[in-house]
Design a protein that fits this description.
By secondary structure, this protein is of the alpha/beta class. It has helices at residues 13-24, 67-75, 108-118, 123-137, 142-146, 155-158, 162-169, 173-179, 195-206, 217-229, 272-277, 287-295, 333-336, 383-403, 407-410, 419-426, 443-446, 468-484, 486-494, and strands at residues 2-9, 29-32, 44-47, 50-53, 59-60, 83-85, 92-95, 101-104, 209-212, 233-235, 240-246, 249-255, 260-268, 279-280, 301-309, 320-324, 343-348, 358-365, 411-417, 457-459.
Length: 496
């Protein structure tokens, strides 16, 4: 049986970040990944000459002095990434259903002034929301790290409604919609989303939004290379089938190939429900806990339409477009049920050139709309499923075409993926894109701790904190601090 200080299940950003952090401190680390390629949601897939991102389309806080930049420097990958900063004058464009459109600009002064130019009577309310965003973002700043803390708290913001705060600060319905216009980026819901989640994600992008030139797989590859340089290992095609417990400790695990791995500590970066399903000889976790965990709602999934453009027909647009078909940008589940289409996010993958070769259209979708195929696997879902995808893709293309009339004629090929595709590759229940829903009514219940009742089993990933690259990076540090100490690790990251 192979023995390590730490074995990590899953090679997404959470697993890879934990692996590098712990290997950097001298621990022997092995990451087990069920897929043939490491990366999780960072992976890209290829069709012909084109690469397509699967889960990461743009990211914030990567400028010098920003928090994710600081994490990536500590992880040893920041200078290895090929990045393109999105348009500071308008990195996100919000297209409302009445035909009006507005944008989010980078930098808080420009963010405020851009919105105030369209809503001059709402200047003070815009400042209030901007200050809220900045206060929350400052809770995980590099300065906080250098003080020996991973975070300066924020529970009070987790218990406040983002929608109520926006509605109290500004009165114009268009401005309310614009301020919340990127809610689909994090599964935002009017009656659930906290001011903390809203502000943390918007703060990151307002600091400066970036896309990966050539795709986000480069981040996974850089982390794997860094881990291996530190003596760590990544084993792909190694699906974990069982975690064996002895008393209150996990002693070893086995893979589908029958290999057994021993460890002092075990970290799971896959969904918590899937993690607990792997436990064997469990006398620690009570059935009541499993029942409670299963009641925690997962966010919706995403239908993805990938467009391949004819050569030199579409000039690259250095921004993202949120296209709404309903007035309420905090669309409720009722808006989505029945494969409705209240919003789509349209963007182009950065190639570093004048013309775009690939465009991506994303739309929220609930698992219930795919119930007829829930027991099927990739490539074996049947003609009805293919017809469903084709019809939904056509509706998405028509929506994009209503804003960009020349787009249809520029499309050479297209590909689609549903939440079921995401489910099968990531083992996320129902293909949820953003993990467990964070509810401001119950902020403690919906934010799971890294430490479990099993003495040497830790959790990490987006279900613990805010989703996205920044949220997962912070969650990884929280997890690793259980082994390394919070003050020690925070200062190491802050001083990198």
């Amino acid at each position: 049986m192979k023995q390590y200080d730490v074995v990590i299940i899953g090679s997404g950003l959470g697993g890879l970040s934990c692996g590098v952090m712990l290997a950097r401190e001298g621990l022997s680390v092995c990451i087990l990944e069920r897929q043939r390629t490491a990366g999780g949601c960072l992976q890209t897939f290829r069709r012909g000459d084109h690469a397509f991102d699967t889960g990461v389309h743009y990211v914030g806080s990567l400028a010098d002095g920003c928090i994710l930049n600081q994490y990536f420097r500590y992880l040893g990958v920041m200078d290895k990434l090929r990045l393109q900063r999105l348009d500071d004058a308008g990195f996100d464009h919000i297209h409302l259903c009445d035909g009006s459109d507005y944008c989010h600009a980078a930098g808080f002064e420009r963010f405020e002034e851009t919105l105030a130019a369209s809503f001059p009577d709402e200047r003070e309310g815009i400042r209030q929301i901007s200050r809220d965003i900045q206060r929350v973002g400052a809770l995980i700043s590099p300065e906080i790290l250098r003080s020996g803390r991973l975070s300066a708290g924020g529970l009070e913001y987790m218990a406040l409604s983002a929608a109520e705060r926006i509605d109290a600060a500004v009165k114009h319905p268009h401005l309310r919609a614009v301020l919340a216009g990127t809610s689909v980026l994090y599964g935002g819901q009017r009656n659930r989303t906290s001011l903390y989640e809203y502000a943390m994600i918007n703060h990151s992008n307002i600091e400066g939004a970036y896309s990966f030139i050539g795709g986000s797989q480069q981040l996974a590859d850089a982390l794997v290379a860094e881990l291996e340089a530190l003596g760590g290992e990544v084993h792909c095609s190694a699906e974990v089938k069982c975690i064996h417990l002895e008393g209150r400790r996990a002693e070893w695990l086995t893979t589908s190939a029958g290999e057994r791995y021993g460890f002092k500590h075990l970290i799971s970066s896959i969904h918590p429900v899937q993690t607990y399903h792997l436990l064997d000889n469990n006398q620690v976790i009570r059935p009541a806990f499993f029942s409670r965990l299963k009641t925690l709602e997962n966010s919706y999934g995403v239908f993805s339409l990938y467009l391949v453009f004819k050569p030199q027909t579409v000039r690259y647009a250095n921004c993202n477009h949120y296209l709404y078909t309903v007035p309420d940008v905090w669309a409720t589940e009722e808006h989505y049920r029945g494969a409705k289409l209240p919003v789509a996010l349209f963007s182009m993958q950065a190639s570093g050139g004048e013309y775009a070769s690939v465009g991506t259209v994303l739309a929220p979708m609930y698992g219930a709309d795919l119930a007829a195929w829930k027991d099927t696997t990739v490539g074996h879902r049947g003609a009805d499923y293919e017809a469903f995808k084709a019809a939904y893709a056509e509706r998405l293309l028509r929506l994009v075409e209503s804003h960009f009339p020349a787009i249809r004629g520029a499309v050479e090929k297209s590909y689609t993926a549903t939440p079921l595709t995401y489910r099968d590759y990531t083992l996320t229940p129902d293909g949820s894109a953003y993990g467990i829903v964070k509810d401001y009514h119950q902020p403690i219940v919906n934010h799971l701790p890294a430490r479990t009742r099993i003495e040497n089993l830790l959790l990490t990933g987006q279900s613990l904190n805010v989703h996205g690259l920044l949220g997962v990076a912070v969650s990884s540090a929280v997890t690793c601090s259980e082994l390394l100490g919070t003050e020690y690790l925070a200062k190491k990251i802050g001083d990198a």
